[in-house]
Amino acid sequence: VSRQLKEEARRGFAGLEEPLAGLLAMLEGSGDWKGKGHSLGYCITTELQLWMKEHPAAQQSGIKLKKLQARVLRILAQCPANLLDPLISIYQLHTADRNYLLGHVSHLYHRGDYKEAAVLSIKLKLQPDQDVEKMCTPLLLQDKINLVEDYVGDYPELQSKLLQILDTWCEPGFNIRDITSQYQGLSRYKPEKFNRKMLSKLVFRLLDRFNADPALCPNVVNQRHLRTLNYLFYKRFVEKTMTQENWTDHVQSTVGENRWLQGHLMQLLIRYCDLNTAAGWAQRCNLPKEMLPYGVADELQKLQEQERVEEAAKADRYEERKKEDYYQLPIPRANIHFLQTWEETLRCWEKVLRPGQVVGIDMEWRPSFGMVGKPRVSLLQIALQDEVFLLDLPRLLEQAVTEAEKEKLPHFIQRLYSDAAITKLGYGMSGDLSSLAATWSALKDTDKQAQGVVDLLTVDKQKVDVVSPEQSDEDRGFRQPEKGLSLLVQHVLGKPLDKTEQLSNWEKRPLREEQILYAASDAYCLLEIYEKLCKDPASFGLSSDLTGSLVGKPSIKPRAKKQLNKQEVLSPSVQQCEGHQKETSCPPAPISPKEFSVVCDNMLQGLGRYLRCLGVDVQMLENEDDHRKAAEIARQEGRVILTSGLPYQTLRSQVAEGRCFSVNSSEKAKEQAVQVLKHFNVQVSLADIFSRCQ
């Protein structure tokens, strides 16, 4: 039918004296082409476009063409997107009088057809002769942000103008209603989305997309810095989870030489601290007297001696607390090497790249606090059994002049990660490797080539637990609960990591002694964890073949942002279940879903819903329920327990043999359901599906 239509259309074109006028007459007389998709009008139009290329003599010019262009412009405002380009091409609208085209677009705009006016402007490349604020404002009010981005997409000057306009709307004294009130009757009008928060997000998105200079948007950038300042004060004085040194570094970096931010800093200091502290910052920022709040100037002379005494006492207390409460490096300070020259790194590489070597790897970068772009690695830590190497990446990159020198460090990192004979230990390796890729584009495929890696985050997923000495509330003080690697170190080695340096400014040189010790500890503790787990995996609820199951090739793509594991490992309980199944001489007798009743632990609610859709009798624990409730329900109602990870060890001892089954928590619900049905030989028929659904 399509071929016949095309042939018929071509015969029609050839038979018409003016095929261009004939197409317009057809479109003007029919509404078929106005719908979405490939209508009859669309098929004929695109066929004429091809026919015109083969028959250039049929093309019109002069007065006749101008009249046709005037007619087609009236159609363009109504036609679907797929007809725009063919009609513009057939009627040579790019050659039409530019003022005439601008006038037509202006007519559409004043008629309220803002989207159509913008789309036609983009197609005809009219943007340089238009007012970007006038064209984009109604589109923003209609939440057509993608169209706004397309409108300025090819014009850096318009991008800058748009960013400056959006920034002026974010001025503290600017009333956004002055803008929105002009468009009250706008269709699909969404004024609730048109606020400073939305505009701020949009500005940073456009800055990132267009790689524009943030200096174009001082109001938005200042507001972001002010939010950062408020966040830093909250972390330091409310949560109390940031050290004075880190807090000072970040505040100084955030405020810089900006007098507006320095004024807000003074107000925050008076609110959270005291006049002495405010006076110290006033001196540091060299603020003029007219900017100083009342009472601050009088404190400037008293401050210096008082601060020296307090900091010395605090440092002593801090060092004593760290030794008592936190993990301590078991190697001498002399064995921590801070490498800033190529000669030093070559000696490091010789030791690290030896076959059979086991190395702990970690990385540090400056916290971004929500700013645009991915973080670049500032420090690479590599721990061996008796020493730790800290590679100063920014300094090493500065020294690399030739292309060969610039390739040295990425080449070493690639060799290290791709060598299966070297065991690499890490925690959340996906995050580290993606930051490396952002630092050097040459390392973007390192995760795909990596071999012999052990991501200890996998151990966390296997619910590693151990009875550790309980701490009283008095011992803990007001310390935040441990998490991540620090919690794993506490479980396995007895004391958590001291994470107070985690939010350090890792780009600032020289590094403080506390930063060096923290960085070395983060890498070295991985060696101690791995050694202890390998020696006695059973006491941590892990399988005996820990080394074989953990060492492998990292997965190319992590499943979720927060799960940065590098390889999939079956939980030990699943391995036990599978081993038990292999030992069974014959599978259980087949049963129907109606005969199969289970109770799902609270981390398996997705599996429970899936099984219920297949006709299985399912009960599920609520999120707040204790795991042991599953055993009570199983005993009372004769149900099989479905669980995962560490709870399996506890629950299987409370029910009869074979009545507790552990699934792989890393799989999706569908794969888990297949595993359960196969293990218990449950045969699902079409009649069973949705049989329990109302």
Automatic annotation (TrEMBL):
The record's annotation in SUPFAM superfamilies points to: Ribonuclease H-like
Classification via Pfam families: DNA_pol_A_exo1, Mut7-C
Q: Which UniProt keywords apply?
A: Exonuclease, Hydrolase, Nuclease
Q: Which GO terms describe its molecular function?
A: 3'-5' exonuclease activity; nucleic acid binding
Instruction: Provide the 3'-5' exonuclease domain boundaries.
Output: 336-538
- Tell me where the transmembrane regions lie: none
Tell me the superkingdom of the source. Answer: Eukaryota
What InterPro entries does the database record attribute to this sequence? 3'-5'_exonuclease_dom (IPR002562), Exonuclease_MUT-7-like (IPR052408), Mut-7_DEDDy_dom (IPR037432), Mut7-C_RNAse_dom (IPR002782), RNaseH-like_sf (IPR012337), RNaseH_sf (IPR036397)
Is Plastid one of the keywords?
A: no
List GO BP terms, alphabetically.
Answer: nucleobase-containing compound metabolic process
Could you tell me what this protein is called? MUT7 Exonuclease
State which gene encodes it: Exd3_0
